[in-house]
Each structure stands twice: as structure tokens, then as C-alpha cells.
Design goal:
single chain, 417 residues, alpha+beta, Endonuclease, Chain A, At1g16640 B3 domain, 2 domains, eight-stranded mixed β-sheet
């Protein structure tokens, strides 16, 4: 069987891979990708985890040329796969650029997708990518036999300890010299670098000469719940949302000022029911309201109806490739009455009992900028930057708002990176 994949408007390879891994017929999964980002790794995480729990083995071969692979993506892969290899040739004219996803039942069936799809959210879902799928059974032709033998022979070369352009990664300590050599950078740094380049390029184009097929979303990992439009009272004025607010897995990134934080451990971040718009526009986003001066508050980023003051929600935050479970979002109450302040308690713990609060030394969340990227409605990736990066984040924001009317209120922004 041969199939052509024309992504994204006809079919998305990420969906195909998830379906194949869930069939419970395959025993070995091989990932070969020039680039890897959390947007791809973490969306595949649960499916790969179940595949391994069912007895499957996973090998991954990841390139890091042109800073296309992030530190966090590699760290997440360390625990996600059985064997992880980083491939890089010191020759500056040679780039490791293949993309292949191979499955076998170790008996009669071989399945492979080879094309342009990297292990990223764009590569597996939203980018325009082409790939060819080949599936064979026990009645393989001589050409098919040779094809898969050649592929497996090359994989064997990369796994050989004598291969000078491939190295096995066993734990995070194996990555330190790659970071020192500036071959591997943190994901938020890569996103900011790309955004700055795009920003400079867009300034040069006074008139955009190209059109678009339209926005393509990474598919939701869960069915979307029916939502509702919300009404928020601000100084006896009713402000209404334009879009319905409901749990979804649509990808978004938002930044938050921390300032002094609150709580004894300085791990409570203030959110808001309603935001006062500073700059930009919420048009085309779910934060738009019927009042031009207001956008919906930052609590909506977590798929929470801001007017539902009795709701509590626990989310998991992935920070430096560790999942911290049990970060609680709720309305802060004074006595028996809510005081209108939504908050998130960054108190989650990982599998080793380590707390997010103590993931770094001291009160490390104070006077920082927290960036959260939604992977799904209860799972987010966190990056932390110094306050000096605030202007850079502002320049890449769709809109910027304050938690309150006071000019000193904390700011937040919806990112376009």
C-alpha cells in the first residue's frame, strides 16, 4: 500500500501516527527527525507512553542543526523513548535533515512515513508538508525488501557506538556540552529568535504579496465541551464575551508578570476575571468583548469561565521536561465572599515528590515573566524569563492588558510566537 499525505488541509500526519500507534499490532517505533520541539513531542507523549506500556519499543534519532531542536524537547524525549540519539555532523555544509516514522510488528508488517514532517506541532499538524506512506505485509516484493533493509541498515549505523556523528543520550547531563557549544538552546529562546526575525522581515514588506489557505489549528486531543458566552459586571456595567468559553486543546501562549507573587512560598500568581486593554486588539481571539476597553481576563487562558467563581481546576505544568501535577486555579476568597481575584497556585509536584516552587533556588519566581504554552486544556509548558525581557515579549503580543484599572496592576499578553 502506498499513500500520499498532503498536510494540513486533507490529512495530518500527527493524527495518522497516533492512530497507528494505538492499533496494538506494532512492537517497534522509530522516529527520525531533523528538528524536535515540545509542540510535537508533548502532543505525542500520551500516545507513545501507552504504546510502550503495551510492550512497544521506541527509538528516536534527532538532529539539532540550525537550532531547530529545543533543549526541553530533547529532555522530554529522554524519559519518553527507550533509546535516544542526537545526530550532528561537524561539517558546516552537512545538515542532518531526514524525517521518517517507522513501525513494525517484528514479523510481517512494515509501515513507514517519509517526507518533510519534523517532530514539531507544525511538522505533524499545521505546516504544509508532504509525505509518502508505504505499508507492506509478508508478501513483500524484492524492491520492498531492499527498501526496508536499506532503511534499517542506516538506523543501525546511527546506533553504533563508533559512529562519530551520532551520540546516545542517557540523561540530562549528557546535554550540557551541547548547550555549552550552543548547539542546543531553550525553547523560549528559539521562539523569541524566530519572532524577532519575522518581525524584521514583516517591516520590510509594506504590502504582503501572498494570500493564505487560512489558519490551521493543531487538533484537539479531547472533544470540545459546549461552552457559553459570559457576562462580567464591571462598575455596574455588563461586559459580554463575543465567543463562548469552553475547555479546548487549541494551542495558545500567554505571558504573565509575577512581580512579588503572593503566598508564603511566593508561588501564587494573580490572574484576572477581566482585563483592561493597553495595546493591541483581541479581534479574532476568544478574549474579545463588546467593550473596546476590555478583554477577558487571563483566567480564560485556562479555559475557565471567569464568572464561575466557585470553580476550581488542577493543571499539570511541564517545566524543564518534568511534569508538576496539581497546580490549582481558583478564586481567592476573603471570609465567605470572593474578592474577585483569580489565582493559580504553582505548587505542583513531580513523580519524585519535588515541588515546582523549589525547582530552582530561592524565591525564583519573584520578579520574573512566566510564559505558558497550552498543550491541552489541563497541560501546559512553562518558561521563565527575567523582567528585562518584558519589552521583547510585548513586541510579539497580539494584545497586552492589565489585571485591573490601576496603572500599576500586573500585565499579561497573548503571544503570537
Amino acid at each position: 500500500m502506498i499513500q500520499f499525505i498532503n498536510q494540513p488541509h486533507q490529512i495530518q500526519l500527527g493524527n495518522v501516527l497516533m492512530e497507528k500507534l494505538s492499533e496494538k499490532r506494532y512492537k517497534h517505533f522509530v522516529i527520525v527527525s531533523a528538528f524536535a520541539k515540545n509542540s510535537g513531542v508533548l502532543r505525542m507523549k500520551e500516545t507513545i507512553k501507552i504504546f510502550r506500556e503495551n510492550g512497544g519499543k521506541v527509538d528516536a534519532f534527532i538532529g539539532l542543526d540550525a537550532h531547530g531542536t529545543s533543549y526541553e524537547a530533547v529532555c522530554n524525549l529522554i524519559d519518553l523513548v527507550d533509546n535516544l540519539y542526537i545526530v550532528h555532523d561537524n561539517n558546516p555544509t552537512t545538515t542532518f535533515h531526514p524525517k521518517a516514522y517507522y513501525l513494525t510488528d517484528l514479523d510481517t508488517v512494515d509501515w513507514i512515513a517519509i517526507g518533510s514532517n519534523n517532530l514539531t506541532g507544525g511538522g505533524l499538524w499545521t505546516n504544509t508538508e508532504w509525505a509518502t506512506i508505504i505499508e507492506t505485509t509478508d508478501k513483500k516484493s524484492p524492491d520492498e525488501i531492499k527498501y526496508f533493509e536499506t532503511f534499517l541498515k542506516q538506523i543501525k549505523i546511527y546506533k553504533d557506538s563508533s559512529c562519530v556523528f551520532s551520540r546516545k543520550i542517557n540523561d540530562e547531563s549528557d546535554l550540557q556540552d551541547l548547550v555549552t557549544a550552543d548547539l542546543l538552546r531553550h525553547e523560549i529562546q528559539l521562539q523569541m529568535d524566530v519572532a524577532k526575525i519575522r518581525h524584521k522581515t514583516s517591516k520590510k514588506l509594506l504590502d504582503d504579496p501572498f494570500g493564505t489557505f487560512g489558519k490551521v489549528n493543531i487538533p484537539r486531543l479531547n472533544n470540545r465541551t459546549q461552552g457559553k458566552r459570559v457576562i462580567i459586571k464591571e462598575r455596574n456595567v455588563e461586559i459580554r464575551s463575543i465567543e463562548s468559553i469552553a475547555p479546548s486543546d487549541d494551542s495558545e501562549k500567554m505571558w504573565f508578570e509575577t512581580r512579588e507573587m503572593t503566598g508564603g512560598s511566593r508561588n501564587i500568581l494573580d490572574l484576572s476575571m477581566l482585563g483592561n486593554l493597553i495595546v493591541g486588539s483581541a479581534n479574532g481571539t476568544r478574549y474579545k468583548t463588546d467593550n473596546i476597553s476590555n478583554v477577558l481576563g487571563s483566567v480564560v487562558f485556562f479555559d475557565i469561565d471567569p464568572s464561575n467563581v466557585t470553580m476550581e481546576k488542577d493543571i499539570t505544568i511541564n517545566y524543564r521536561a518534568k511534569d508538576y501535577v496539581g497546580c490549582t486555579i481558583k478564586m481567592h476568597q476573603s471570609g465567605t465572599n470572593p474578592n474577585g481575584s483569580w489565582r493559580i497556585q504553582l505548587k505542583g509536584e513531580n513523580l519524585f515528590g519535588e515541588k515546582l516552587t523549589t525547582a530552582e533556588k530561592g524565591r525564583w519566581l519573584v520578579h520574573k515573566i512566566i510564559i505558558l504554552e497550552k498543550i491541552k486544556t489541563d497541560y501546559y509548558v512553562m518558561s521563565v524569563l527575567p523582567e528585562t525581557e518584558l519589552d521583547s515579549l510585548k513586541s510579539e503580543s497580539i494584545f497586552i492588558a492589565r489585571n485591573g484599572r490601576n496603572p500599576s496592576s500586573k500585565q499579561y499578553g497573548l503571544l503570537d510566537i
